[in-house]
Structure formats: C-alpha cells, structure tokens
Specification:
Blueprint lengths: L4 E3 L2 E3 L4 E8 L6 E6 L8 H10 L4 H4 L2 E8 L2 E9 L4
Antiparallel strand pairs: 1-2, 2-3, 3-4, 4-6, 5-6
C-alpha cells in the first residue's frame, strides 16, 4: 500500500501525484485528462494506475487508457486519460 499525502492539488503516492488537467464532454463520452508530477524514476503504467485510484477515480470504474511516459527536465512525467463517468 502506498503512503498518501492529501493536499489541495492532488493525491500523492510514493512515486507520483496524479493531477487532473481537464474534463471534457458529458455522460459516457466524457473524459478526464491526467498528468503526473515529475519523478526521478521512470513512471510505470502501474504507478499511474495507482495514482488515479488514490485520486478517487479507480480504474475499475472509470477505466484507464492512453498512458504515456516521457523524459522531461528533472526526470519523467506521465499522461493518461480515463472516463469522467463511472459505469
């Protein structure tokens, strides 16, 4: 289980924090676009999956797709999407 720190800009797992960038659409076609904080270690699919769950949008209900990790200044940053509607 990851240690969590709650603050006004997101929830942090041990490695990254998931930050909601924007919500689009309505109903089942709505999407949430996520971005992680910069990590000195490469961010895995599992890291982002857990960070989204820790933010209150568990992938079992909100899905999890379009995961990408890229090298940026200071380390790595991940982006991904989920549905904004739990079905």
């Amino acid at each position: 289980m990851s240690a969590e720190i709650q603050n006004d800009s997101g929830v942090q797992t041990q490695k990254i924090r998931a930050v909601m960038q924007k919500k689009t659409g309505i109903g089942v076609s709505s999407r949430i676009y996520w971005e992680s904080t910069v990590s000195p270690e490469k961010i895995t699919y599992d890291d982002a999956y857990q960070a989204q769950a820790d933010a209150g949008y568990h992938p079992l209900g909100y899905d999890f797709f379009d995961f990408h990790c890229q090298e940026v200044e200071g380390g790595y940053k991940a982006t991904w999407n989920c549905s904004a509607s739990c079905d």
